[in-house]
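Sat 14:20. Reprocessing the chain from the morning session after the first attempt stalled halfway. Input below, unchanged.
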Amino acid sequence: MAATSDDAPAAPDGAGRSPDPLDRSVERLGQRIRTLRHAHGLTLVQLAEATDLSHSFLSQVERGRARLSMSSLFRVATTLGTTQQVLLAEATTPAAGASPVLRRTDEASATAGGGTVRALAPAGDRPFDPLEYTGTSQDPGEYWVHDEDEFAYVVEGRVLLDLDGVVDLLEPGDSVFYLRGTGHRWASADGGPYRLLVVKQRLARRDA
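Finished this time. Tokens:
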């Protein structure tokens, strides 16, 4: 069992805690995964066997010392009865009081296609989940296929979008909507940085 190529170590400072907000988000995500694992009565070994990830890597994840890729996060989330986007949202730190604002330093993130995906809203009962994808890789990786409809908007950069084998070049300001079941993947068109706003439909839990 092994982590995927996108899984990566976080970079703690000499005190064992990173000053980087993205690395602090890794700690929050790891804590949330540990809490859910305990709630499901699973040991680290059992979670590792169910997700085909190594026990040692998952231990690093739960301690905030390794960052999950979206593909690994998908396996962990599925095993724990949730989704990647909900896990990321649950790992955010909402603003104090009744403010609906989510600060940049309060978000949770994972790696994706050589870049980063982060939640843009905290946990809550809503019909959609907003995410931000950033990266520079020109490798689109494997197709993603899921049960939710999805909308994507190019904030910056030039992006090659592949929908079931049909490739389009998207420029800043371009957007796309695709239905559930559509194979999709994207990459930087020229090796430069890109930023996507992705809004994913949230489905009702089957056990709700």
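Confidence is low (pLDDT under 50) at residues 11-19.
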